[in-house]
Amino acid sequence: MPRRRSVLASRTSRSDLPPSDAPEWELISPGVRLGYRRGRGTRGQGGSWLAASRSADGKRVQTKLGKADDLSAADGTGILTHEQAKDAARAWAKSLRAAPDAQPALTVADALERYLEARTAEGMKAVYDARSRARVHILPKLGPLRVADLTLDRLRRWRDAMVTAPKRLRTSRHAAKVNTRDVDVSDPEALRRRRDTANRTLTLLKAALNWAFQHQFVESDRAWRLLKPFRDTGAARVRFLDVAEQRRLLNTAQGALRDLVAAALMTGARFGELAALTVRDFDGANGTVFVERSKNGRARHIPLTAGGRALFERLSAGRDPRAPLLRGETGEAWKPAQYQRAFKAALDRAKLESITLHELRHSYASAMVRNGAPLIVVAEALGHSGTRMAEKHYAHLAPSFVADTIRQTAPDLETGTGSGSGTVHSLA
User: Which residues have a Cβ under 8 Å from the Cβ of 230 and sit 6 or more positions away?
Assistant: First the structure.
């Protein structure tokens, strides 16, 4: 009986595979498997070859071989055809057997991949964002390096270089070159944002390296344990839309985007939470929507106002309970980055400053605080595990004894248009 041709053998058959963070595996020799992965966050960038086997002590070992020749011609080293990848996988497995006492050198790319695979198995919801951050900021500079070769100085120079590196802009997946914009080093706010980005990226890298250290893939964590993040980077101005601005945005948003914006404004849910909602998550009897898993892994029920209830009743009427509650223009569930261009256009038509969809979550929370909701209630509605973030972003909006006392007792200066026309009210 003829052997069935592997689905990984050609570019065409690989392109038919759905994007997934889980690899497609092919057994190529006894105990040796070749894997292909085209992650959900790598659209337009092709896939990668992996190899898996077992070490002399029976432990499953996996490594990344290189990129697949999906978009570029193979060069035999970094970009491999199917046959070249099979040869590389067999050679790698042979090296494991030839040196049973020596584990393969763990690279930064390997550590990140194993960490993200473990977090995915644990139900981590932000894997897409983590892969995207790693692909842009970590892998180009540090990916090929052995974890054992990392030094404090090398990591510090990598962290510092991110601050002044050109900012990546939205680029068509068919473009030959990524659009970038130079950082204005004379702008303190621009530098603060870049340092904040560097800190977030450093947090991801250290999490992956700590995971490798805890699982005994490396002997020391000294290089990254001693590297500290930039200080004083968390003072970003949180932007809110008032009621009039929210109405203007809704009036300029159209179709499926309007439903997405309305849902964000009336639930305070994150985009990933909204995109994951199904029809059965809306409880019409109790007027709530159920978020099964939030960023911190907690489930929550969000009570809806009359407007929110009417919105979800319309979206769920007569539909399959397992269908996505919020659908994009294609009729499928929203995917990351699908809404951004239309959202920016709606902001421009509404003559609003550029904000992100996530900042509609801030608008939801700020309205609650201004209307007297305790911060513990706001934190619960947003799915936070405590009040720290709510206090950080919204405490200044809450009715305050200190603020009321200052307004009643501080000098109240009335100024006119001409010099000498101002008066100060007496405090006596």
Answer: 159, 163, 195, 196, 198, 199
What is the full DSSP assignment across 289-357?
Answer: EEES--TTS--EEEE--HHHHHHHHHHHTT--TTSBSSB-TTSSBP-TTSSHHHHHHHHHHTT-----T
Q: How far apart are CA 211 and CA 189, in angstroms?
A: 33
- Cα–Cα distance measured from residue 25 to residue 29, given in angstroms and rounded to the nearest whole number: 12
User: What residues form DSSP beta bridges with 291?
Assistant: 300
Q: Which residues, in sequence order, are bridge partners of residue 49?
A: 36, 66
Question: Which residues touch 220 (CB under 8 Å, ≥6 apart)?
Answer: 213
Let me know: does 119 contact 102? Beta carbons within 8 Å: no
How many H helices and E strands in the chain?
A: 17, 12
pLDDT at 9: 87
Distance (Å, rounded) from C-alpha 291 to C-alpha 302? 8
| Local structure of residue 134 (DSSP, 8 states) | I
The one-character DSSP state at 235 is -
pLDDT of residue 236: 53
CB 326 within 8 A of CB 277: yes
For residues 233 and 245, give the distance between their C-alpha atoms in angstroms, rounded to a whole number. Answer: 28
On the 0-12 / 13-18 / 19+ scale of CB atoms within 10 A, 404 is: exposed
- Count other C-beta atoms under 10 Å from residue 241's C-beta: 23
Q: Identify the DSSP state of 278.
A: B
Q: Are 268 and 381 in contact (CB under 8 A)?
A: yes
**Residues 285-322: tens digit of each pLDDT:** 999 999 987 776 778 999 999 999 999 999 999 999 99
CA dist 313 → 247, 287, 333 (Å) = 20, 9, 18
Q: Tell me the C-alpha distance between 272 and 203, whole Å.
A: 21
For the ranges 111-120, 234-243, 406-415, the maximum mean pLDDT occurs at 111-120
Q: Which residues of 223-239 are buried (b: 16+ CB within 10 A; e: fewer)?
A: bbeebeebeebeeeeee
What domains, with CATH codes, occur in the chain?
11-104 (3.30.160.390), 116-225 (1.10.150), 243-404 (1.10.443.10)
pLDDT, position 415: 64
* Burial 61-79, CB ≥16 within 10 A → b, else e: ebbbbbbbbbeeebeeeeb
Residue 240 tokens, joined = 């809110």
Residue 290 region by backbone torsions, left for phi larger than 0, else alpha for psi between -120 and 50, else beta? beta
